[in-house]
Amino acid sequence: MSSGNALFLNPVVTLNCSEPNTQSLLAAFNADIFPFSAVRPVNSLQTPTNISIYFTLYAILGVDEKAQILETFIWQAMTWRIEFLSWDPMECGTSDITVPRLNLWRPDIVINEFVDKNKAPDTYYVRVNHTGYVTDGMPVKVKSSCNLNIYTFPFDMQKCSFTFHSYMHSNVSVRLSFAKPVEDILRQSKALMKTMGEWELLNMTSYKHNLVSYGSSWDELIYYVTLRRRATLYVVNLIIPSCFLITLDLFSFILPPQSVDRSAFKMTLILGYTVFLLLMNDLLPVTGNTIPLLNVFFSICLALMVGSLLETIIITNLLHNAKDYPAVPRWVRVLVIEFMGRLVCLRRKKTVQGFVFPNQDSMVKVKAGGQGDAVGQAEGPETGAVSELRKLRRQLRDIRQHVFSKSESDQHSQDWVHIGCVIDRFLFILYAIFISISFITIVALWIHWKST
Predict the structure, then answer these.
(1) Residue 351 scores a pLDDT above 60
(2) Is the confidence at residue 68, as pLDDT, over 50?
(3) DSSP of 119-170
(4) Quick check: 261 and 293 in contact, CB under 8 A?
(5) In its keyword annotation, does this UniProt entry include Transcription (predicted)?
(6) Is residue 171 within 8 Å of 219, Cβ to Cβ?
(7) What is the distance between the alpha carbons of residues 40 and 149, in angstroms, rounded to a whole number?
(8) How distant, in Å, are the alpha carbons of 6, 14, 30, 102, 412 from that of 35?
(9) Are 80 and 126 in contact, with CB atoms under 8 Å apart?
(10) Cβ 323 vs Cβ 409: under 8 Å
(11) Fewer CB within 10 Å, N- or C-terminus of the chain?
């Protein structure tokens, strides 16, 4: 009887070995199994083939934030059964054998997120045991798409998925199942992890999904891999130096602008901070989806430094040229001196009013003995004295106008200087609040990252 007729007459093909050795078993495979590698190994095509899948994560090679790609190295294993295959281990001399992969039917199981071809070393053999179960294991270098959320960089955690499914076979032909509990896969992956670099494996979950499309359904096995970034490098190289520079700029407000060139000091800080950001730019992730909170922090720090420099320039100008400025507009007085001054606890000191001089129309009257006619009688001799008094009155009036003008000019100058002091303190308080909030946020994120 031919091998083909034997296959369809007998639901299970028991391979007959002439001798208990590998050569005899391989000859039986060549005769009864290998010729049927083009079809699913079932007695009836109405019977689905059950395939068990698991993988072990050996290495996390890297994450490309810009391309949204996760690169890993895994060992993928699949198990299925050839229904019409069995042999007697005693008769054939072994309970399992490795045969070329191309000589057997293999399921078209792929990872849905795969965006590149497998560049791992090729393996050419599969293992078959005496009950007909086939185990196909192979290394896979996976470059998979992953939706990365780097808003909390460098304290971010990413959750990427590996979806195993068949391209051509619906669950009528191929049914997928988990070969191992996901807890065992996680434990084994952590124990065998060789390369992690910037990332560490945090958790793994899995579930089976049934995809319905075009009137058919496909089984999908989805593994979710949770990764956590190691933030120490970024804290030491990015966050701490930036905090030092911004704190130093904060304390520069203590320098008196009247006697110290505060602007030169601040310009040096801005230059140093800009060079620092340029040097550390390669450490920052680049992606079009979200802007990391750390990038916003750096931008605000630089904006505050530039704002403090502009404020220092304004104050220096006010201190040296305030006497040449016109009177303070009313809206500026209300907004800055009254409102912001109270807000920063820097109210204007009350000034003592100057002397009050007589009005221009006041007259100097000279009386002699209290009699009006006596004045008329003495008008001739006292004309010179009245003239001197009138001259003195005009001089006093000129002095009064000069004093008032000088007092008003000083008042305007003091108003502008006070406005500069209010703005200086307001920016100092704003600076201190921003730094405090930033420090608290960074520490809170770090504590949450550590406790996860």
Answers:
(1) no
(2) yes
(3) -SPP--EEEEETTSEEEEEEEEEEEEE-----TTTTS-EEEEEEEEEESS--
(4) no
(5) no
(6) yes
(7) 42
(8) 13, 16, 7, 11, 105
(9) no
(10) yes
(11) N
Element (H, E) at 71: strand 69-81
Q: Are 179 and 55 in contact (CB under 8 A)?
A: no
Under 8 Å between Cβ of 63 and 158: yes
Q: How confident is the model at residue 150 (pLDDT cuts 50, 70, 90)?
A: confident
Rounded CA separation 262/265 (Å): 5
Q: Would the CA dihedral through 55, 60, 61, 66 be positive or negative?
A: positive
Domain ranges of the chain: 3-230, 234-350+398-451
What's the confidence (pLDDT) of residue 421?
82
CATH classification of 3-230, choosing from 2.160.20.60, 2.70.170.10, 3.30.980.10, 3.40.50.1970?
Answer: 2.70.170.10
Distance separating alpha carbons of residues 130 and 411, to the nearest angstrom: 105
CA 288 distance to own-chain centroid? 12
Residue with tokens 């129309």: 361
238 with 182: CB under 8 angstroms?
A: no
Which runs of consecutive H residues, i.e. helices, occur in 371-382?
Answer: 372-377
Q: Kind and range of the H or E element at 62?
A: strand 49-64
Specify the length of the chain in residues: 452
Task: Please answer whether residues 15 and 85 qualify as being in contact, where contact means their C-beta atoms are separated by less than 8 angstroms.
Answer: yes
Tokens representing residue 111 in the block: 């990872």
Alpha-carbon span 60 to 54, nearest angstrom: 17
CB-based burial, 326-365: b 16+ in 10 Å, e otherwise: eebeeeebeebbeebbeebeeeeeeeeeeeeeeeeeeeee
Token code pair at residue 440: 């608290």
- DSSP letters, 75-86, are EEEEEEE-TTEE
Q: Which two tokens stand for residue 382?
A: 């006292």
CA 355 to chain centre: 65
Q: For residues 348 and 422, what is the distance between their CA atoms, to the nearest angstrom? A: 10
Amino acid code (one letter) for 284: L
For 241, phi then psi, to 5°, come to -60, -40
Say whether pLDDT at 388 is over 70.
Answer: yes
Helix, strand, coil shares of the chain, percent, nearest 5, are 45, 25, 30
**pTM for the predicted model, two decimal places:** 0.74
pLDDT at 177 over 60: yes
- pLDDT tops 90 at residue 137: yes
Q: How far is Cα 385 from Cα 364, in angstroms, rounded to an integer?
A: 11
* Cα–Cα distance measured from residue 175 to residue 172, given in angstroms and rounded to the nearest whole number: 7
SS3 at position 2: coil
